[in-house]
Amino acid sequence: MSWRIKYLKKSPWVFHVNVGACNNCDIEVVNLLTPKFDVERFGIKLVGSPRHADALLVTGVGTRQAAIRLREVYRQTSKPCAVFLIGACACDTGIFHSGYHVEGPVDNIIKEVDPNAIIAYVPGCPPKPEAIISGVVKALSAI
Amino acid sequence: MNQEELNKKISEIKDKLIGYEQPLDNRIYLSCESENSYALNKFLFEDVPLRFVIATGIDSEDCFEILYHYAYDQTGCVITLKTFIRDRENPAVESISPFLPAAEWIEREIHDLLGIEIKNHPDMRRLILADDWPEGVYPLRKEVKK
Amino acid sequence: MKKTIKKPVLSVGPFHPLQEEMEFFQLTLDGEIVTDIDMRLSYNHRGIEKISETLQFDQVPFLVSRICGICSATHPLAYVRAVEEIAGVKPPERALHVRTIITEFERIHSHLLWVGLAGHFIGYDTVFMWAWKYREPVLDLLEEITGNRNNYGNVKIGGCREDIPNELIPKILKELDEIEKKTEMLTKAVLDDPIIHARLKGVGILKKEDAIKYAVTGPTARGSGVGIDVRADDPYGVYSELDWKVIVQEEGDVFAKAVVRLLETFESIKIVRQALKKIPDGPVAVEVKEIPPGEAVGHVEAPRGETFHYVRSDGGNRPVRHKARAPSYVNVPSFKASCIGQHIADVTITLAAVDPCYSCTERLAVVDGHNNITHDYEELLRLSREKTARIMREA
């Protein structure tokens, strides 16, 4: 296994992207840093730039305006990278599937840039922080 | 002002209204034609005075309506001014943002979503639809399905 | 303007859910003072009002509680208030108590969230960690009552979907005492600190006349001397039967808004205690068969201000028109009035004082009119924290 993948699995640095979410999932993601869940003890850190990131945490339905920017962020993320779709909205647009401003499930948007992207789904509305941690760990051990 | 005095103050503009309903003590619905919208809004915001809440644009089959919602917090009364825009081909109404900055965003949104022209708006740019949203498609109109 | 901004705006990591975008808030500078700002929405627009027209009346509360994650008890309540008025339905007393309790719990954890954020923006990460740690018991209680930490899905037309079991009430009261103690400690730590005074007092002042012109609501208005609160002005739930007060401060700066939010948290705890002690027995919902033609408005006090919904029905199964207005829609433009003339290092805390629902905040970019230098969000945050560090050194 290449050393890049090895370090991605050990201590993934994540970049959080919101493409049209109600912020519930985003608040749960931020809750991960707080003392009750504290993911920094696993080496997971939230970084301020996609270029420093090993993984993207994406929340939101993928609105038309945000979709273009999401593709750009994915291109800028250093490869190899994994994409975690947090929440029902990111997994498959959830309750907003009929919205006129919704471009489509996020995995389709990412696959337009990279058909072989590594994508993991953490459903829930919002998924509990324990579920997010569990999802990330499971996905990383499967890579 | 208590509710009775408020009712009396609002009846000062009765001659410009085409409808007045008060289904509950603290809910009043006024109706007017679009030509009187500017003067009536100015009266409600400055002379009564009331707090502006938001405006709702509606596509009503044979006309457009813009509902301006105001609140009078001392009695908890919500007063809605329904403005009927009869011209469906070129709907237009006068902007109230010059004296009410709080209405700037909602007027831009009504223009984006319903295609109603807001005359003399200080900053009429796209607010809420994507940069690449096609011109002339107004999502909140009844004939537009997804 | 697109050409001068080279870097995308980035979030500082945790909070700001969206970061990538360039033109959301653009500030123009003269030296280090802000002279103008421009804002662009759209990234979060999901077309909820149109989706409402395709759903049935009783499905809409589930949609609207997802307009905003942290006001998710108040949006469905405002909608249901409007529909119950159209249908002429009065929910039972027990339902009103349950609704009040859940709304106030949400206010408590939302204000604690804000305190944490404000601390983070000025560089007090300890305040951030403590505040978010002490909101966890509130979320756990809500999970025991409704089944979810956020998005409670508890409000329906005619009452509530889930009841609070009487056996749970002593436990909730005990937890409330703990939460109150921790909030007292946090309040003292925040409000007595001289550095926080130096960073927040006199910063981001929203004058009373501007508060009225921009029609702001909630703590943003109450911090500027405009004493409006839907719970007192147009009561719903059981607020008119309980003993609590509306907190108003006159100065209009960020410190005043922080004081309003912290003191309101104590009022909320008082309200929940009284509501739990007085809760009568009985059903939590009445059956509503159909919604006749008509229209109505419903408004409630969310943690950020007044949430306002308008619903029109033509007697069918679905709303003809549903308008939802979140408080941040009127509060965020007032940032223009409170930010112009401010120093660039104070921009992040001034915006945070409005407590925008994240769905609105995200992106901040700065364009310097003379030099075309751009500062992104991280840079603004760094400047804010440097200012705190400077004040600490000179103190």
Explain what you see.
The complex is a heterotrimer of chains A (143), B (146) and C (395). Chain A has 143 residues and is α/β, with parallel strands linked by helices. Chain A contains 6 helices and 5 strands. Chain A has one domain: Rossmann fold (3-Layer(aba) Sandwich). Chain A has helices at residues 3-10, 24-31, 64-76, 88-92, 106-113, 129-142; strands at 13-18, 45-46, 55-59, 82-86, 118-122. Chain A has a 5-stranded parallel beta sheet with strand order 2-1-3-4-5, sandwiched between helices. Chain B contains 3 helices and 7 strands. Chain B has helices at 3-10, 37-47, 104-114, and strands at 19-24, 27-33, 51-59, 64-72, 77-85, 92-94, 117-119. Chain B starts with a helix and ends in a 27-residue tail after the last strand. The model of chain B has no long low-confidence stretch (mean pLDDT 91). Chain C has a domain at 56-327: Cytochrome-c3 Hydrogenase, chain B (Orthogonal Bundle), CATH 1.10.645.10. Chain C has a 4-stranded mixed beta sheet. A 3-stranded antiparallel beta sheet of chain C has the order 5-6-7. In chain C, strands 3-4 form a two-stranded antiparallel ribbon. The longest helix of chain C is centred in the N-terminal third of the chain and has 29 residues, at 93-121. Chain C has helices at residues 48-52, 60-64, 74-87, 93-121, 125-146, 169-191, 194-200, 208-213, 219-222, 230-233, 254-278, 328-331, 335-339, 347-353, 358-361, 377-394, and strands spanning 25-30, 33-39, 155-156, 159-160, 294-302, 305-313, 321-325, 364-368, 374-375. Chains in contact: A-B, A-C, B-C. At the A-C interface, β1, α2, β2 and α3 of A face α1 and α5 of C.
Keywords summarizing the entry:
heterotrimer; B: 146 residues; alpha/beta; Beta Polymerase, domain 2; five-stranded mixed beta sheet; two-stranded parallel sheet; 21% helix; C: 395 residues; alpha+beta; Cytochrome-c3 Hydrogenase, chain B; four-stranded mixed beta sheet; three-stranded antiparallel beta sheet; 16 helices; 46% helix; globular; disordered N terminus
In short:
The complex is a heterotrimer of chains A (143), B (146) and C (395). Chain A is α/β, with parallel strands linked by helices and 143 residues long.
